[in-house]
Write a structure and sequence with these properties.
Length: 335
């Protein structure tokens, strides 16, 4: 079917505050921390930009760390109801910390609407209405379908985002709309969005290029430490997802790691025991093949072992990258 799309972009302090309440809910739930979103007080320059980040303006972060009642704050409620619920008076002063007005980013409306038509037609939506609310904080996009209007979606977009981020939000909102009665896990929803980006015309319309995996560098380490400090300031520090107890690896919110093969478990144990240090290929080969490591040595085989470990960790809720590749050297565990 042929679909029509309308796009409206706006800014208001109220939407800034609503999105902040959602961000607070995600931080208290430790959603961002467990999935590797780094927390900063300003948007990074393009050369520093990381795949997943959260922005809270300095004056807002200060207020949240000093005057905000986190114990009283109902994260489960605000996670689901930030868009509609009347804002209590006790939170209104936070809205004064945001600009009264803001310029609208220079999006390509034609590209966004063309991609949104593709999404609408895939889901048999006739007239899709997209409301985009510009904010200065949060992740790049937050999205949701309207609770009343079946063909209306809401996308909260940070002021530094690009066309592709808006489209990603539209895809996410429409997907939530169609799975509302039986929502799949967050990881499955992410996979669907990535599939639509790479396997439909959306990729060519936006001119997307494949991105490389995040690499461990001194700059990344520096930014990671800044993020750790910001989470700690709010009282919700990042905690290790993998620990060791009685010679067994323990996964946060799962318990003993019992889903890896013997060789995978040995490799992960070695990497975690040498956290923040490079483990070279020869060491991993010896661990896997023992005395036959010289004869059986295969970079491809080692790479497949690492990828299986990453995949199984993702399947058990660890969506942040904890195993980094050091090209030409080996692998490094860092969290």
């Amino acid at each position: 079917m042929k679909s029509t799309v309308s796009l409206e972009v706006s800014y208001s302090r109220e939407r800034e505050l609503r999105r902040l309440l959602f961000v607070c809910a995600q931080i208290k739930k430790k959603f961002y921390q467990s999935r590797g979103f780094l927390l900063f007080q300003e948007v990074l320059s393009n050369e520093d930009l990381l795949p997943d980040d959260v922005i809270i303006l300095p004056e807002v972060l200060s207020a949240l760390s000093k005057d905000f009642d986190w114990d009283e704050f109902d994260d489960k409620f605000w996670y689901s109801n930030y868009h509609y619920t009347p804002i209590p008076k006790r939170y209104l002063s936070l809205g004064d910390l945001f600009p009264e007005d803001s310029s609208i980013p220079d999006f390509s409306q034609d590209k966004i609407e063309e991609c949104s038509k593709i999404v609408a037609e895939l889901h048999d939506i006739d007239n899709l209405k997209i409301n985009v609310y510009i904010t200065h904080q949060g992740t790049k996009t937050t999205f949701m379908p309207d609770k009343v209007e079946p063909a209306t979606v809401h996308v909260y977009a940070r002021s530094d985002v690009e066309d592709s981020n808006i489209v990603y939000g539209v895809i996410g909102a429409v997907e939530v709309l169609h799975t509302r009665d039986n929502p799949p896990p967050w990881e499955e929803r992410q996979a669907v969005r990535k599939y639509l980006f790479s396997k439909t015309r959306i990729s060519s319309v936006l001119g997307l290029v494949e991105t490389s995996p995040l690499e461990y560098t001194e700059k990344y380490k520096e930014l990671y430490e800044i993020s750790l400090a910001n989470y700690k300031t709010l009282g919700f520090p990042v905690t290790p997802v993998i620990t060791k107890q009685n010679d067994e690896l323990i996964l946060e919110d799962h318990g003993r790691i019992d889903f890896l093969s013997k060789s995978e478990n040995l490799v992960l144990d070695l990497l975690t025991s040498r956290a923040k240090q490079i483990v070279v290929m020869d060491e991993i080969a010896e661990l896997i093949w023992g005395d036959a490591s010289t004869a059986k040595f295969s970079l491809q085989a080692i790479s497949k072992v690492i990828e299986r470990i990453r995949k199984k960790l993702r399947e058990h809720g660890i969506n942040k990258q904890v195993i980094f590749t050091k090209r030409g050297q080996g692998y490094l565990y860092f969290e």
